[in-house]
Amino acid sequence: MNPHENTQPQSNLSQDVLNHTAELNQRITSLENSLSELSAYRLSTVNPSLPLAEPIGYPEGFSTSTPKHTHYCDFKEKPNYTNYAIQDKYPIPALEDREYYFPDQDYDYWISGLTDYLRIKERLEEEGFVYADDAVAFDFGCSSGRVLRHFASYNEKVRLIAADLNANHVNWVNRYLPQFITCFQCINLPALPLPDATFDLVYAFSVFTHIDELESAWLLELNRIMKPGAYAWLSIQSDDTWKQIGNEEHFMFQHLKYNEPHMQGVVISEDLFSRGMPQDRYIFRFNNGVVYNTCVFHKKEYIEKSWGKIFDVLDIITRGHDWQDVVLLRKRG
Ligand SMILES: C[S@@+](CC[C@H](N)C(=O)[O-])C[C@H]1O[C@@H](n2cnc3c(N)ncnc32)[C@H](O)[C@@H]1O
User: Mean pLDDT over all residues of the chain?
Assistant: First the structure.
């Protein structure tokens, strides 16, 4: 039985967040007013709040079927999936509420979140980090909780705050994941309604792969909300990823090819990728008017130099998140 079951009262931290929200909303409004005059800032459209699809519940044989997803289970010990599955009591989001991750592969969707959760845990343990009783983690760009649900299911100590641009995702988390999670909708300007020096861990999967403008400002914002010595686990697409996706069979190649008509002057070809990244930070921009209108790649050398001005870059983990790499950062001080 999870001790945080829905009856748990709101924590002080949640109250702090609410108090902070009012003040920051004012700052955000004035920032938005001034930014709306600058055409250089292409504010992406947040999905209108659509009715949520019914969660699919648990697929039949959920805790016992064999995962099809095998390519990055490189743990020291293979996880006992059944043990984890029986502790996770939350429904699986329908495809449209989970960023279309893993069509027809609900168990693989679940395993992918567990894998990311366990990878963070294993690596932070190697760093000598143990969650303290008052530890707080932030899931930035949480979607419908692919990873968050695992923090909520097995790690009772960590208090969880999460945010996403997309109101539907926030609604999903608030409706179907436990109430001890504080989940709120943020905007795509780097001004989170969260107090300074709050978090022991910040993680973001496939979020910095979509942030084009204001990247450094977002890093500074995450740095601000982290405690000194806290860790950030941020996935990126690196120059290695660039090489890896350069064949027509790769789903990212196909994704970019599909969007080619919406890009100006870009031809997606195997040749493009075999030539290597043309810039330290390369952005595919799609003018298709949806939230997902960018796909960002970073050279690892660039990460070391540029992100290293803000954080200590402890590692860049090859394929730390599926086909993406993970940058492990630590706040100084
Ligand atoms: C590719 S999805 C990944 C979702 C989730 N992290 C996962 O791994 O399943 C990217 C998510 O980041 C959110 N997002 C993108 N830019 C964001 C921003 N600036 N602030 C908050 N969320 C953002 C999107 O709405 C979307 O839910």
Answer: 84
